Amino acid sequence: MKLALAGINHRTAPVEVRERVAFRADELTHALQLLHQHTGQPEGLILSTCNRVEVTVALDDQTDSAATLCAFLAASHNLSPEILQPHLYLFEEADAIRHLFRVASSLDSMVVGEPQILGQLKQAYGQARDSGFIGTYLETVLTRAFRVAKRVRTETEIGQNAVSVGYAAVELAREIFGSLQRRRVMIVGAGKMSEAAGRHLQKAGATEVLIANRTETRANQLAEMFNGQVIPYVSLFERLPEVDIVITSSGAPHYILTKAAVRNAIEARRSQPMFFIDIAVPRNIDPGVNELEHAFLYDIDDLQRIVDRNLKGRWEVAEEAERIVSQEVERLLARLRTRDVTPTIVSLQEQLESVRRDVLSRYRPRLGQLTPEQEQTLEALTRGIINKIAHGPISELRREAGHTVGEEPGEVISFVRRMFRLGDRSS
Question: Into how many domains does the chain fold?
Answer without folding.
Answer: 3
